[in-house]
What does this fold into?
Amino acid sequence: MEPTKGYKGTSWQVKYVLYFYLCYSVSGQIHYSIVEEMRKDSVIANIADDLGLDIKQLSSRKLRIVSRASERYFYVNKDNGNLCVKDRIDRETLCGAEASCVLTFDVVIENPFSNFKIKVDIQDINDNSPQFYHDKITLEILELTSTGARFTLQNAEDPDIGSNSVQAYRLSENQHFILNENIRTDGSVFPELVLEKPLDRETQDIHEIILTAFDRGNPIRSGTTLLKIIITDANDNAPVFTQDMYKIVIKENIPVNSTVIILNATDSDEGINAQITYSFIKTSVNVHHTGIFSIMPNTGEIKINGNLDFEKTKNYELSVQAKDGGGLVAHCKVLIEVIDENDNAPEITVTSLIYHLSEDSAPGTMIALIEVHDQDSGDNADIDCYILEDVPFDLLSSDTYYRLVLKTTLDREKTPSYNITIIATDSGSPPLSHMQGLRLEITDVNDNPPIFAKLTYVAYVPENNLPGASIFSIQASDPDTGDNAKIIYSISSTVTETVSMSSYLSINIETGVFYAQRSFDYEENKEFIIEVTATDNGFPSLSSNATLIIHIVDQNDNAPKILYPSPDIGGSAVFEMVPFASEPGSLITKVVAVDADSGHNSWLSYHFLQVSDPNHFVISEHTGEIRTLRGFQEKDMLNYKVVVMVKDNGNPSLSATTTLSLIIADDFQQAVPKLNNQPKEEETQNNLQLYLVVALALISLFFIITVMVVIISKCKQPKPSAAFSSLTTNLYPPIDPRTFSMYSDASLPFPYSYNVCVALDSAEGDFTYINPNGYVPVENLMDADNAEQASECIKEASDQMPTFVGAFDGPVDVASCT
It folds into this structure.
């Protein structure tokens, strides 16, 4: 829509007004006229052209609409300067039945500051249909009612105005009634039902007629209601009000329960037909107002039920009905006008353009735009505005707007912030005022770098920590404010040339909290040296550095590792040979162990966990040395099994064990039978002793018999060579090989096999180990005349002896050679 001609005049007048306004900041006013219900984004006018503004400067000059209500309906397209519809505009919602509906708003322009008054006249369109409040109207009419009798009907309501409101009524076809239209003093049309043909209750006691209301809009709209006419007897006079419309003026501060007016209606009938009852008729106009007012049903007195508010509702329209005892009714309207009182303090709206002002800002800088408004009217709305404190700021007036500007230079170091109190006072009696506080922060330039409390920080972190856990917090401070004091933390360092620090540690760039990216291993990294940089967010940014040294604290997470005896034997016990003649305190062997931990966690102690006879051996708790506790005797065991436990000093402590077999023997040949004769249990030891005693007795007996036989033979046979040959052959009887298998526990730990041949003489049994490749040093095996006989003896023994299966890689054959 174009601006109205009455305002624009000729083009030179518009240019002159705009030029005068821009130069001297004098408020102007533009008047537009549009119809309601325009579509969203519809263009009303090009406001930039009407104001004489350059479209390219709309954004830089910060053009905007300022209003309490109108800004929700309009907006300015800053790309082309068009004033457009923002939201649905319903004239009836905004202005009701008022003849004129105008929306006003201000167009405010900054840099430099200017403001314009804009009025938009909202024209009515026929967007509402006439509507009866009741879908059905019931009338009671005497059957003796004469023709020509008139009955006032409830009129229809249409929120539209002018020709778009209710203009005519029409009845549906019937035999008894016609419709008459009357016009009230306010111009509204109300229908009357006129009896045209006499009624006969006995013929038809109920008549149903449709009443239709029309407007004259384009297109024409209508509404209907059902008239239900009940034919009764007797009452032939309806009540009559002294006026069809009453006008009342009251103040908005009238006390509750005060009397507004007393209505009076008369009825020419007598008795019950003359008793009148007053009531409100709820219509679409006064449905929201009847709760504020009440009417006495017998007297017609209207009273105030609640507080009135001129700012919310300036006028009330009440529809009153007077009904006699016979059911006849009369209607009237009561128009109530509310007069304003000074009951609203001024309102202050601050559009703060700058909440943080730099201390180097120049005098004259605009800080905030302030609008003052009073909901009252007349003199009650005249407002004076000023600053309460003595501050380096000033208020410059421009119509209903004030600009808060800087008056002198600022010094943030002296005053970092200002609390400004703005007071607005109206001209009412008594005057009312309102205070609005505004806090202004003075910002600093970025002239201070972040500062750490210390140049070097030291942190101690236990190893095996949870990944992602926070381990340390470092903080820096910056005496600046705002973004200049916002600090971002970063770290820079590398663990190795190939591994970066980021794989071990991360830092929260805002809080300075360090987080572990993985579990630390003291044995891998004992400390980290990190360069921490704190950088502020100023321009240009400033920074400072600090060093963080993180010491990894050892935990007892490594068990002792036994180096000797070597743990690679495959679970077999390690054999140590102990001389039989060892003195008490002699060093037998030493258990060597290490612990990858450090400090107390790596202090190792050695203990016997299991020992066959604790009275023979002792182990040093600190060195792991195993020594003899006393000398050995013939009756003592010759094979001892020892389990050594090595534990560290951690909490809880960790340990490792190793097993040793201690063989009591002076040489290796003595150790072999002791290896085979290792006792497993006490019962096995007792059986072995018994077998040895029996075997020794038998051997002694055989020896005596053999000697006697030889002596007798030598006496009878003088040939010495033959006798010696016989003696050699029969000197030692063959020993049952099973005797040896009884004493073997198959626990030899040597990783190679030996074939064992046993030779017995009168002194003791000697073991000679035979190489499996076939070479046998027979010259050391026994005293024989020749090696061939010894070899044959060994071969025969090999065929007769059972096979020993134990820790050998191959079988071990034991034979008795004689």
